[in-house]
Amino acid sequence: MKTTRPFLSRPWLRVAVLGLGLATGCTHTAASTSGGRPLDSRARARAYLEENQPEKALGLLRELHLQAPNDLDVARTLTEAQVKAGHTDAWITELQGRIAASESAVDQYMLGLALFSRARDAGAPAVAAFERAIALSPDTAEYHYRLGLARLESEQYAAAVEPLRRATTLAPERAGWRLPLAKALHRTGDASGAVVALGAVVRGRPTPAEVTTARALMEQIADPFSGFPKAAEPKLEEGLRYLRDLDAPQHSILAFEEILQDYPDLAVVHALLGLAYQRLDDAGRAVDEFKQAIERAPRDGKNQLYLGELYLARQRPDAAREAFEKAVALHPLLDEAWFQLGDLHLERRDLNAARDAFTVAVSLQPDAVPPRGKLALVYQLEGDFASAERELRRVVEKDPENMEFSLRLGLLFTDQALKASRPEARKTAAGEAERWLSKVLEAQPENAVASRALQQLKAQ
Predict the structure, then answer these.
(1) pTM score, two decimals?
(2) 38: three-class secondary structure by DSSP
(3) Residue 334 and which of 86, 210, 279, 345 are 20 to 30 A apart at CA?
(4) Is residue 50 part of a domain?
(5) Can you tell me the distance from the alpha carbon of 298 to that of 327, in angstroms, rounded to the nearest whole number?
(6) Number of other CB atoms surrounding residue 303 within 10 Å
(7) What is the mean pLDDT of the chain?
(8) Within a 10 A sphere around the Cβ of 444, how many other Cβ atoms?
(9) SS3 assignment, position 378
């Protein structure tokens, strides 16, 4: 039986509230230069924090805060520096004095951040400070977000929903903010709402860390083995071993059918039975079992994925597309469903839909080559050569010996050269095309595609 990973534990929330780790990979020189150019004060302060030199950052941040007292990024980073430098108590006292003299929403916000960093004050005191900040500035999305996180940390899940929802309404571009909203919705029993929130996260170009968090939560929401009867677990393991490890689907079918004799409504067993029949190329029985799984667990997107893959293998693209669309609506973290959807949209020349699907697939699997290659193709077909080049270069920079993508770059620049209206742009693109095509021909002298493209360039 699989186990689920922890989600939004106390350390995660503390980091989220303080905004720790704003920069990564900095060295000592990063605090003064970037690419040979001096950094501004804000970037230098962040670099010092990454180098664990908060005292150096504090002088810069205090000056920045004086210059821009309503800049929440500066306010948050200043509080982070105070906490990292061990000045939390003194900073809280200073903020309380400032508030007593002349209250401001930003001071209440920083007070809430500082209080949250102390275990004894992470509940009601921090919540009260964020609530006061909202009272003073009700349309500031950041304040609602931090209040929601503080309530979530205090396990006040129902109370966390409203401020988190308000934050995402005020700042819809902050897709990552929907992660704690999804957690709160899930904990209050609104699984459908949580899935919708996760769907917005994956469509918002999430970071790898956000994808990891989203996957962990989705595993909790859609665990097909939740509530599985313990008495049937040995037979389940037997069936899985036959199907997964021994490639003996006939034996796995016997094990799964034996379970269903006692527990006929176990959706996950019907799904496994469908996979076993699919392995035996018995499409009719497989479809029947997948549909039974869907009937018994209509909110499980994986069953729709299995059905879509079977339809696709049977050359039924319309039925497959419908199943994949249902799959990602129910389970937005199914990267294979997004990839197949992109392919099906691409075949229909629906480039907008294909781009959207492949963009999600790339976000979910940033190191996977196929979705990035397909996304580059869509950009090229749309005439967005810069975006296509960016995606292709991401692959060849990691894998310089990837001749397929080197060829793709050569063909992209060839296409760009042939379509360029300005002589200078045509010359530049042709030079890049020749460079990449020549690289391919050095490694693969018989590559006919590269040879034809090179001849086409020379003939223009």
Answers:
(1) 0.85
(2) strand
(3) 279
(4) yes
(5) 10
(6) 30
(7) 90
(8) 15
(9) helix
